[in-house]
Design goal:
This protein has 311 residues and is of the alpha/beta class. It has eleven helices and seven strands. It has helices spanning 4-13, 27-32, 37-44, 54-57, 68-83, 101-112, 159-174, 204-211, 215-225, 231-253, 273-304, and strands at residues 19-21, 89-94, 117-123, 126-127, 130-131, 151-155, 180-185. Strand 6, helix 7 and strand 7 (180-185) form a beta-alpha-beta unit.
Length: 311
């Protein structure tokens, strides 16, 4: 909530063959890459292990370990670089994650090996209850200079600005000019989690000031002012949004358990003999329960036919 412009603007800047490495909150980017919201919610519910093929959308599975996906992104970018593959890589993370060792290691490797990767940091001002000024002494984007690549700050509540800046950084990476850090300066309007009470550590006046910069309302005002959308457009958009919300709610309530064998899918990019062997062993083990149940049911039916029944 409050970071829609940063996510959708950067997500729409991605070319088809660009690859995104998200945190666990890039729902807007996932939408831009064509990932069904039900697949995201299935993972949060623990129904599946991701629910989508990362290579089908060039959108990696969500990473729970804070900042770890930046290392994955750099490694993937270096692999593309060495194999002569096309397209850039983008890694998403937050201001709090920028203090993690993994992120700084990713910066180092990306700079030294000139990896075609864009680091997109959504600075929403709060790492749970820790404000940005207690995390660093300089503006976040300026930290890139210490690693040897450029950094830029963009208004994270302006979707068109995020689109333009991210598009430029990706084009730069594709040309072989190396990494770049984008700091999308935005604000976390809601709580960190459902168990968090942000009123304990931030002022109500701060929240009210950022409400005036709401990215969705700003875009609506821009479209109105420039005659690019009318009331009918927004009414239809609201109807479509309500239908999507209804579908997602119903889908979550009726979400079936997946086939246990799905845990072996997408473990490696290419078929792996060890995984195939383990899959076959597990399939036989899993099937044995069904066979055992069938035998028990059959036995009960036979015993009940004898005098005295089954004891």
């Amino acid at each position: 909530l409050g970071q829609e412009a940063a996510q959708v603007g950067s997500g729409r800047a991605l070319a088809e063959n660009d690859y995104a490495f998200p945190t666990y909150r890039e729902h807007g980017v996932a939408w831009c890459r064509g990932v069904d919201p039900l697949n995201l919610l299935g993972m949060f519910r623990g129904v599946n292990n991701g629910g989508w093929d990362p290579n089908g959308n060039n959108f990696h599975l969500y990473t729970i370990v804070i900042g770890a996906q930046t290392l994955h992104a750099v490694g993937y970018a270096m692999g593309r670089q060495r194999s002569g593959g096309e397209g850039a890589v983008i890694a998403y993370f937050g201001d709090g994650a920028s203090s993690q060792g993994d992120v700084n290691e990713a910066f180092t490797f990306a700079a030294v090996f000139n990896a075609p990767v864009v680091f997109f940091c959504q600075n929403n001002q709060w790492a749970i209850s820790e404000p940005t000024e207690r995390q660093m002494r300089v503006p976040l984007y300026q930290r890139a200079a210490g690693f040897g690549f450029p950094g830029v700050r963009v208004d994270g509540n302006d979707v068109l600005a995020c689109l333009a800046v991210t598009r430029g950084a990706l084009q730069r990476a594709r040309r072989g000019e190396g990494p770049m850090l984008i700091e999308a300066f935005t604000y976390r309007m809601g709580a960190h989690t459902t168990s968090d009470d942000p009123t304990r550590y931030r002022l109500a006046a701060e929240l009210e000031a950022w409400k005036l910069k709401d990215p969705i309302e700003r875009l609506k005002a821009f479209l109105h002012k420039n005659g690019l959308a009318d009331a009918d457009f927004f009414a239809e958009l609201e109807r479509e949004s309500d239908e999507l919300a209804k579908r997602v709610r119903q889908g979550v309530r009726t979400m079936p358990d997946p086939d246990p064998l799905q845990m072996f899918e997408h473990a490696y990019a290419e078929p792996h003999p060890l995984v195939a062997e383990e899959r076959a062993e597990f399939a036989a083990y899993h099937a044995s329960f069904a066979d055992h149940g069938a035998s028990e049911n059959s036995g009960q039916g036979t015993d009940q036919g004898h005098e005295g029944g089954h004891r």
